[in-house]
Amino acid sequence: MEQIFFILFLLSAGYSLKFFNFPQNFSQSLNLFIIYVSFPATILLQVPKINFNSSLILPVAVPYIVLLLSLVFVYLFFKNESRNTKAALLLLLPLGNTSFFGFPILEALVGTSAIQYGIVYDQFGSFVLLTTYGAFIIAYFSGSSVSTKHIIKKIITFPPFIFLFIAFIIGDFPSSFSPYLELLSKTLVPLAIISVGFSMQLKLDGQKDIFFKAMGIKLFLIPFVVLIIFKIFGFVDEVALTTLLESAMPPMITAGALAINAGFAPKLSAALVGYGIVFALFSLQLFKYLHALI
């Protein structure tokens, strides 16, 4: 649980930097480093480690069910909101904080053996969706009119997508490279949390209703639908519990950084990521209890 408190500490540290003489574009600089250096290094390290077997179908499939549910709920509950607000929600509702926050939570609520299923959910769900679906959302909503050719170009030139492709093709890098990749990879979460903290606003400027509605959908409604599906099909084992908790994780830090960098409702995006971490400490325990009842 030390990692969770470390996240809260970094979030507070990032917010406190607002009161010093840091430039206003400080978070944008951090975000660019994350996109071009930290995130690609993490992909090169983690993707080659995954081994598939039949028991992993559930954590592979559920992230895409969460994506479909998110799309429905965004256009059902936020159809009258601005283009930038919809873009932010389309990034933050499907993509959860399933690794740095997710893994220690899984270990605390389920046990160390749950981590392997969490990695599958994260790598083949969250990471793949961020580098493909996330790139599509950023490209599509960055302009008032974007051609299919332009969107495809944005996706295939998005650095994390390029490195995801490289990781699948090459596999494990020579061991001599690993220490350097690990060093760069370790910058991902601290920089992303500090960036989000620096951008976070306690006042949402009239977006409180959107914030609470989005938070309710992300932390309660979506995982509740997943829980109902599991109940119908009788999924009750450790893989199912792990997958359920991963689907209930708060919005992804990196997705929040991308949304802020793209100008998609920055205050709302930062608030969803920052406060989501705090609220999830309680909501995840609720879903563990509910899963035990089925």
Query: What number of domains?
Result: 1
CATH topology: Na+/H+ antiporter like fold
Stretches with pLDDT under 50, minimum 5 residues: none
Give the helix level as a range of percent: over 70%
Radius of gyration: 18 Å
CATH C-level class is Mainly Alpha
Please count the helical segments.
Answer: 15
CATH-defined architecture: Up-down Bundle
Query: Structural class per helix/strand content?
Result: mainly alpha
Mean pLDDT: 87
Keywords for this structure?
globular; mainly alpha; 294 residues; 0% strand; Na+/H+ antiporter like fold
How do you describe this structure in short?
The chain has 294 residues and is an all-alpha fold. The protein is built from 15 helices and no strands.
Description:
The chain is 73% helix and 0% strand. It is an all-alpha fold. It has a single domain (2-12, 32-293), classed as Na+/H+ antiporter like fold (Up-down Bundle). Helix 4 (83-92) packs antiparallel against helix 7 (133-141). The longest helix is centred in the C-terminal third of the chain and has 28 residues, at 266-293. It starts with a helix and ends with a helix.
